[in-house]
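Query structure, 120 tokens:
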């Protein structure tokens, strides 16, 4: 099994910044895409940002220019730097990692979620 541990969420005022981290642990053979999703109150979960194994990134239109996704392959960790936060960014943020172990084929793993609250 692959375990994902998220950190970095919290309460911040509008215009502030937060940096989320998600570290994958386990005997991992490879990690493919990594990404962040969020679920706002009363809303469906949506993709926020994704990064491929080669470093190519994609962002939701609502966060372009404000959020930056990055990864540290040596640490099996994905980050989400969130700047110029807005109240509408409030929600539970989940990391997602496509990974394979030496015993199982690649599959998606989810973090437990970390709460991000942006006050006005």
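Result returned for the query:
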């Amino acid at each position: 099994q692959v375990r994902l541990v998220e950190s970095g969420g919290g309460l911040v005022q509008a215009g502030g910044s937060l940096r989320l981290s998600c570290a994958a642990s386990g005997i991992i053979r490879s990690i493919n895409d990594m990404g962040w999703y969020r679920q706002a109150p009363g809303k469906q979960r949506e993709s926020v940002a994704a990064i491929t194994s080669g470093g190519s990134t994609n962002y939701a239109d609502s966060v372009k220019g404000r959020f930056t996704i990055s990864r540290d392959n040596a640490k099996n960790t994905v980050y989400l730097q969130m700047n110029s936060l807005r109240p509408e960014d409030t929600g539970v943020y989940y990391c997602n990692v496509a990974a394979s172990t030496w015993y199982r084929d690649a599959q998606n793993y989810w973090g437990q979620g970390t709460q991000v609250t942006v006050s006005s």
